[in-house]
Amino acid sequence: MPHLFWGGADCVELAARFGTPLYVLDESVIRARCAEVRRDFLDRWPNASASYASKAFLTRTMARIVEEEGLGLDVVSLGELHTALSAGFPASRIEMHGSAKSEAELNAALDAGVGCIVVDGLMELEVLADLAARRERRAEILLRVTPGVAPHTHAYIATGHQGSKFGLPLDGDLLPQAVRLALDREFISLRGLHFHVGSQIFDPTAHVRSVIRVVEAMKRLREELGFRVLELNMGGGFGARSHPSEPHVPLSLFADAMMEALERACRVEGLEVPAVSMEPGRWIVSEAGITLYRVETVKELPGVTYVGVDGGMADNPRPALYQAVYRAVVANRPEELPDSEGTKVSMVGKCCETGDILIEEAALPPVRRGEVLALFNTGAYTFSMAGNYNRLCRPAVVLVKGGQAEVIAERQTLDDLLRGDRIPQRLARRGD
Ligand code: LLP
């Protein structure tokens, strides 16, 4: 039976060569997604721009690919900004996000000359206005708003609902207050608004409703404050399928629906259509990635067989955090089906947690210790959310193109785990 290939490389060989667990990214999938953004969004609408939300997955190589593909980069922390800048990513194409930005982050964004800072609240705006004035550096900003719309997704990855910690509510006084303050301050240049409804969403309804609600707010801002929104950033959140055999989620499903709603609502309200932008993360990178694990143990109990692998919630906390659903195959016989009358098979991680379940009911044939399992759709929010629980080393990331595999993030070593680990003098021993 043919092995599983990813990006033209044999996954059994990748596991043997680079070790497991291993994140494997197919560069061509990432580039194809960026091309789809260009074709179905940037080239279709005047004044459209798009950034990749780097929280989904960021290394310097990823920043390079995104730059080559003509997208901007959305960063939310000093660490993401530093990674982007050290890859030589042009600051003017970086958008600085964050719901609780530190002064250090705002200063770094101003000093780097990022293209845009998305301001999350009034307090941040005041701090930013002071910092910008002190530096005599103009900050181009968008105000993040909460559209008050709840998308169909896990509650922990919804962001645009009423009461969300992100952004300024559309109703009430906070938004007009922020607009007034932004217009008043010399070194603040308010370009427009930003919303992001949530993540891993498959149906554009919430995005469309958000657009409509935001246009209503644009109208109020125009009438009450004379402020014209020049740019509207519609966030990201587009879903990724859990297996390559499922139908592709086209960007146009969201982009067309949002643009139609925007054009119609602006026409109805008598407003000019603003420049538009979006910032997908998961949709760009998730389906490009798989994680390879080696089976360490198979435990047959009445009613359930546990397949225990050499990674788990430390390299992919998503099932434990959001009950995220994944699919897996055996890399050396990917087409083999589960035993029809077989008991439930749970693919579980090695962490000391009952909840460390990668797949509750895995459609796997009987597997043997030492075999390699591939978990699909792990390009987003795995490496970027990985931790060292149980002192596990973070896996390496390998980028594959045309069958050639290269490490773009090294596996952590046991020595890496001890970096910065100090023993106080009073407990010191010779040889520490
Ligand atoms: N823009 C903003 C302002 C965001 O907050 C996010 C994601 C994105 C764009 C990109 O969303 P995407 O296109 O990737 O759905 N850790 C969670 C996802 C959290 C997403 C947070 N914000 C997960 O693993 O599902």
What does this structure look like?
The protein is 30% helix and 22% strand. It folds into 2 domains: 260 residues, TIM Barrel (Alpha-Beta Barrel), CATH 3.20.20; 124 residues, Lyase, Ornithine Decarboxylase, Chain A, domain 1 (Beta Barrel). The chain contains 12 helices and 20 strands. 46% of the residues are buried. It has 432 residues and is of the alpha/beta class. Strands 3, 13, 14, 15, 16, 17, 18, 19 and 20 form a 9-stranded mixed β-sheet that branches. An 8-stranded parallel barrel has the order 4-5-6-7-8-10-11-12, surrounded by 6 helices. The N and C termini lie far apart (52 Å). Helix 2 packs parallel to helix 9. The model has no long low-confidence stretch (mean pLDDT 96). The longest helix has 21 residues. The site of ligand LLP has 22 residues, from helix 10 and helix 11.
